[in-house]
């Protein structure tokens, strides 16, 4: 199929090549337009007095509160512990999930033993795990980071296992015929081929780690955004609650974007192509 035909098939709302779809130069236009429409509707509802400010403050009030928090240093003072715990938890999850994923993908007995426990780790609510972590690890950044690792662990290990099980076995068999050892196959063949899937899991896990950090601070205490969210809720300061949620979302998006950039750079280096 020619390049022109591929472009024609991939045009419009639906693409026939999901694995090869590339975002265009105007990829941010639809999202920006949708966000502007949402903010306009939000402003219209609050400005018209359809909802009381106690339940839904106006976007201008939330923006003013965020500016005040930023100028006073409150935003960074509360964001720093949350981001630190999320990053530490994500690193712990990477260090555990990728090796375990490799073991599960390459060993059927280990897969039979480990996969149920991996699934079980996501069935227990975080608010139920947090008190146990306090009991075992005490208070501070470490138990919150462990909670972040638990919530970020699942997407990382899942994408690693699925990626390894989806490899082209003809390439792996060729390496076996050439006498490549397991470390050689893992480093030179399986690793580069599975990199997009693994890094996609890391990207998703990084965003989830922020959720784990906030939940951990709300349950176990701390000095991050979860604590500020609890204080704002207790004082019925709805504008502050919305501002804290906005800060958390912005930081999660920033971490997601940074990992996305690193992911594209890594894939270019490992495979010579972009995602």
Automatic annotation (TrEMBL):
<feature type="transmembrane region" description="Helical">
    <location>
        <begin position="194"/>
        <end position="219"/>
    </location>
</feature>
<dbReference type="Pfam" id="PF00528">
    <property type="entry name" value="BPD_transp_1"/>
</dbReference>
<protein>
    <submittedName>
        <fullName>ABC transporter permease</fullName>
    </submittedName>
</protein>
<keyword id="KW-0813">Transport</keyword>
<keyword id="KW-1003">Cell membrane</keyword>
<keyword id="KW-0812">Transmembrane</keyword>
<comment type="similarity">
    <text>Belongs to the binding-protein-dependent transport system permease family.</text>
</comment>
<feature type="transmembrane region" description="Helical">
    <location>
        <begin position="117"/>
        <end position="138"/>
    </location>
</feature>
<feature type="transmembrane region" description="Helical">
    <location>
        <begin position="31"/>
        <end position="55"/>
    </location>
</feature>
<feature type="transmembrane region" description="Helical">
    <location>
        <begin position="239"/>
        <end position="259"/>
    </location>
</feature>
<feature type="transmembrane region" description="Helical">
    <location>
        <begin position="144"/>
        <end position="164"/>
    </location>
</feature>
<dbReference type="InterPro" id="IPR035906">
    <property type="entry name" value="MetI-like_sf"/>
</dbReference>
<feature type="transmembrane region" description="Helical">
    <location>
        <begin position="85"/>
        <end position="105"/>
    </location>
</feature>
<keyword id="KW-1133">Transmembrane helix</keyword>
<feature type="domain" description="ABC transmembrane type-1">
    <location>
        <begin position="79"/>
        <end position="263"/>
    </location>
</feature>
<dbReference type="InterPro" id="IPR000515">
    <property type="entry name" value="MetI-like"/>
</dbReference>
<keyword id="KW-0472">Membrane</keyword>
